Amino acid sequence: MWSSFSRIYELLPPKIQQWQSSPCVAEERNRRTLDKIRREQMEARQRLMELDMKHQDLDALIEKAKHVKIESENEQVS
Question: Would the keyword Zinc-finger be found if you checked this record's keyword annotation (predicted)?
Answer without folding.
Answer: yes
